[in-house]
Each structure stands twice: as C-alpha cells, then as structure tokens.
C-alpha cells in the first residue's frame, strides 16, 4: 500500500499541494505512474512496467515488482513520490490492528497501554477463570454426587484432620510453584530491559560517535548506519520469534528487516514455501477455544514447526550479531570509531545482546522439573477431591458451594504459576514482547533523527537556554556579559532559593487542599462559606 504525492516541480506557482490520498493505489494512480515512465513515443519502457501490465504468456507465476537499476531509473523529478509503506500501514508490531477485534480480548499478551475502569475483581481480560471453568464444573459434579450419596445412601463424612495436614503441604507446594514461576517471569523481563539498554547504547555509538567520511563515502556511511540501526530492531524481533518457536523470516514484522541478509532462516523460508505458509495458518476455531479454556488435549506442540523442518534453520539473532560485529570491525579499521572507550562500549554491548540471547534461551528451556510439576498437581487434586468428605459432617448441603469456592482458590494459584512459567508466549499474562520490539524501533528512529553536529554551540549558546533557571530567567547571552564571580555567586544562591521556593509551594498546596475540602463540605451541607 503506497501513497502518491505529486512532484513539487509540477505544481503551479502559488498553488497549494493537495492533501495526500489515504486510499489504496487505484487504476488512476497506476495510470499516473505509467505516464511518467513513458518515453517520447508514448510507449512504456518494459523495465518500468507495473506487474499488472506485464505479459506472462499464460503463466500462473505470481507477478513481481521489477528491479530498477540506477541506469534504468528515470529522473526523480519526473516520478511521483512513493511514500514509505509504514505511513499508511498498520503497526507491524501490534498483535491486532482492529481495537474492536473480539480475538484481542481473549488472546495475549495484554496491551499495557490500554486502561480499564472496571474493578479488578470484575475484569475477565487476563483472568485465569476461563481456564478453570471445566475443572470447576468437574469439582462441582463430584461434590454434588458425594453429597447426594451421603444424604440418600450412606454416610461419607470423615474427620477433618486431613484439612490441616494436607492443607499445609498443598500450601507449600503452591507457594513454591508460584514463586518459581514469577522468578522466571521477572528474569525474562530483566533480560528484555537489558536488550533495550544495549540497543540504545549501540544506536548512539553507531549514529553519534562513528565518524562519516566526505563526499559519496559519507552518503554510504549514512545509509550503512541506518541499515545497522535496522539490524538492532531485527535482532529484537528475531529474538521474539525464536522464543515463540517461529524459525522463518516470512512474518510481517521481520521480513523487510532481514531480506537482504544471507541467513539459514532466510534460505529455509525461500526453499520451503509450503511449510512456511503452513506455519502462518492460525488454529481452527475449536482448537483455539480448547486452548483458551485450558483443555490439554487441544494444546499444540509449540516446537512442531521446528521439528518438521527439513533444512537447517540456524539461529537468526546470533547471525544478526555476526553482521553487527563485522560492521563494528570495519568502522574501527577505517578509523571511523577512533576512541578506544567507544570501541569498548560497542563490543561490551554486543556481548550484552549475546547474553540476552543465551539467558532468554535458558529461561525458556529450563522449566520447573517435571517431577515437581507432576507432584504438585497430583497433591493439589488429591486435596480437592478429598475436601467434600471432610466438609460433609459440618456443612451438609453447603458442602457443594464451599468446595467449589475452595477449588477456585487453590486451582487459581496452581494455574497462574503454570501460565507465567513461560513468560515469552502468547497468553494474556505473558510479557508484551511486541511492545518491547516497537520500543526498540521507536528508539532507533529517535536516534536517527538527531542532527549531525560538528559543534555544541548551536544548542549551548541558544537564546532560549536559561542556565540558571529558576533563579534567573536570563538567557545565555545575558550571563555571558556578566563576570565569572557573579555567575558562581548565583550558582551558590540557587540551592537556597530552590529550597525556599519548595517550602512556599508546599505551604500553598496545603492551603489550597484545605480550601478545597472546606468547599466540598459546604457544598454537601448546603452552607455558604
């Protein structure tokens, strides 16, 4: 999807440029581009034809955009500007583009930028309740059956000593399960924070500290810097897909970032198109519902795509790191990164990215030992199934709702630990990896927007610079006309002045708060103050 803008040179003098259309590229736009690519004889150069104008001789091959070289490219002023597709396309890092999409409510990870005004106990998005519906129905049926047998056939009540003994063991098991799962969740978040820090630092090193050469080489250096900033974004997105067992490069948020790289994943994507397309297919309706309500038989093997691969898939984040390392070596060899501290900073932060890659792999591939997981699940279910026998002598028919309530509490803690044990998945309570990748992309764009500055006088000596604010509202030029002793004396007074100002502001805020309370009380009582 592209947006067409008329060339500035074609606008008459004094005329305002029309607003860019937001619609898709239609036939009229296609004709406009075609006419600009036509020669003097009115015929379109075959190298410049659009895909739907080319003749395929009955071939069913999917049309592709022509590759234009510098020699065959027409004059830039004669071609309407094709804006970047990112201007009119959805954010590729968003899970769901439509805010009213029903699937966005039941799947995750949760969008942390959204705000809900519902009380927490009434919120369903992110709640573990949907996955507990079937277990709670089973517990309710089991308790109802035992209660009916107890009152209609024979007494099933037993002493409640097991409540104390087994309750202590179950509490310890659930506490261990929850604390272990949250530790993994917190560790995963810590690794992604380290990734963001390393990307920001490397972005500054490459864009700000790396010197640019003169002439055409300087233009190459700028484009190379932009390419490397995109590689930092590609590393974060590739890591996200690796942690979700998505080994190919056909996904919308990464295909444009690594298409120019020679990687194992790129080769596998090109040579196994059938498996690539199959990996993009969403699960069926009943399978998706089964996974949502926690039916274990409906859950797919997350490593299924990797197991069915017939070619090496490689390690895409690691391969991207290799490209970053070779670029850094070239900068140093060309003398564009001459300061040793900056060189050390670049290599150290690449090591941090490697540590993030290995650390997240460790969190993903080292779950709670299966013996612990099985034992805790079995102990919990034994406790719940024996609970009605101990409640019947005391609660009678109230045993049914009481057991269901107890099962809700116990199973809730068990399933929360199970859900956050892998913090990199697609559950609602998992880490919002899409948001982290979007943050990296935004930070790289912010760094790339910084001007090339040969001196700092442009912003230090700016007229709007007020170096001693709030003590003085005078600007840079005013203080430059004063003596150094006067400047230092003003700096010494700044701390005391700020302290007195804060005290006055606190006093004023307290008085305003008191007046506001009096005003509300008078309004409530109907008295005029």
UniProtKB/TrEMBL annotation:
GO terms for molecular function: chloride channel activity. The chain crosses the membrane at residues 132-151, 157-179, 370-389, 395-416. Signal peptide: none annotated. Its main location: membrane. GO terms for cellular component: plasma membrane. Residues 28-37 have a biased composition (Polar residues). It holds the Pfam family Bestrophin_2. InterPro entries: YneE/VCCN1/2-like. It is found in: Cell membrane. Residues 1-70 are annotated as: Disordered. It is a multi-pass membrane protein. Keywords: Cell membrane, Ion transport, Membrane, Transmembrane, Transmembrane helix, Transport. This is Bestrophin, RFP-TM, chloride channel-domain-containing protein. It comes from Neurospora hispaniola.
């Amino acid at each position: 999807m592209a947006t067409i803008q008329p060339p500035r040179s074609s606008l008459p003098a004094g005329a305002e440029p029309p607003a860019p259309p937001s619609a898709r590229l239609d036939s009229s736009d296609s004709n406009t581009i075609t006419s600009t690519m036509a020669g003097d004889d009115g015929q379109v150069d075959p190298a410049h034809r659009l895909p739907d104008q080319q003749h395929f001789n009955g071939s069913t091959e999917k049309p592709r955009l022509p590759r234009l070289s510098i020699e065959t490219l027409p004059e830039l002023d004669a071609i309407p500007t094709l804006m970047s597709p990112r201007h009119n396309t959805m954010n590729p890092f968003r899970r769901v583009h439509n805010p009213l999409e029903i699937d966005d409510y039941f799947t995750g990870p949760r969008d942390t930028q959204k705000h809900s005004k519902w009380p927490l106990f009434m919120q369903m998005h992110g709640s573990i309740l949907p996955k507990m519906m079937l277990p709670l129905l089973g517990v309710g049926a089991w308790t109802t059956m035992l209660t009916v047998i107890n009152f209609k056939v024979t007494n099933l009540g037993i002493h409640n000593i097991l409540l104390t003994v087994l309750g202590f063991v179950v509490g310890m098991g659930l506490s261990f399960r929850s604390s272990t799962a949250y530790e993994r969740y917190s560790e995963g978040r810590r690794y992604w924070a380290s990734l963001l820090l390393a990307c920001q630092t490397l972005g500054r090193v490459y864009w700000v500290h790396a010197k640019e050469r003169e002439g055409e080489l300087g233009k190459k250096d700028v484009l190379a810097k932009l390419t490397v900033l995109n590689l930092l974004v590609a590393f974060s997105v590739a890591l996200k897909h690796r942690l979700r067992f998505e080994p190919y490069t056909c996904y919308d948020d990464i295909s444009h970032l690594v298409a120019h790289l020679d990687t194992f994943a790129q080769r596998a994507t090109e040579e196994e198109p059938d498996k690539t397309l199959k990996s993009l297919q969403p699960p069926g309706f009943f399978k998706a519902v089964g996974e949502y309500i926690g039916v274990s038989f409906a859950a797919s093997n997350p490593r299924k795509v990797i197991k069915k691969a017939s070619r090496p898939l490689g390690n895409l984040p690691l391969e991207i790191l290799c490209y970053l390392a070779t670029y850094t070596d070239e900068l140093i060899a060309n003398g564009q990164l001459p300061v040793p501290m900056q060189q050390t900073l670049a290599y150290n932060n690449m090591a941090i990215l490697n540590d993030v890659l290995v650390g997240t792999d460790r969190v993903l591939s080292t779950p709670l030992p299966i013996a612990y997981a099985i034992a805790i699940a079995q102990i919990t279910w034994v406790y719940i199934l024996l609970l009605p026998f101990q409640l019947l002598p005391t609660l009678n028919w109230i045993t049914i709702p009481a057991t269901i309530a107890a099962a809700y509490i116990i199973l809730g803690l068990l399933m929360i630990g199970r859900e956050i044990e892998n913090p990199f998945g697609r559950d609602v309570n998992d880490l919002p990896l899409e948001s982290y990748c979007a943050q990296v992309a935004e930070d790289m764009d912010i760094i790339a927007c910084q001007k090339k500055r040969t001196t700092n006088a442009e912003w230090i000596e700016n007229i709007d610079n007020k170096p001693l604010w709030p003590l003085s509202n005078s600007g840079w030029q005013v203080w430059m006309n004063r003596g150094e002793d006067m400047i230092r004396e003003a700096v010494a007074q700044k701390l005391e002045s700020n302290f007195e100002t804060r005290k006055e502001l606190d006093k004023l805020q307290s008085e305003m708060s008191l007046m506001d309370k009096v005003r509300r009380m008078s309004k409530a009582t109907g008295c005029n103050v």
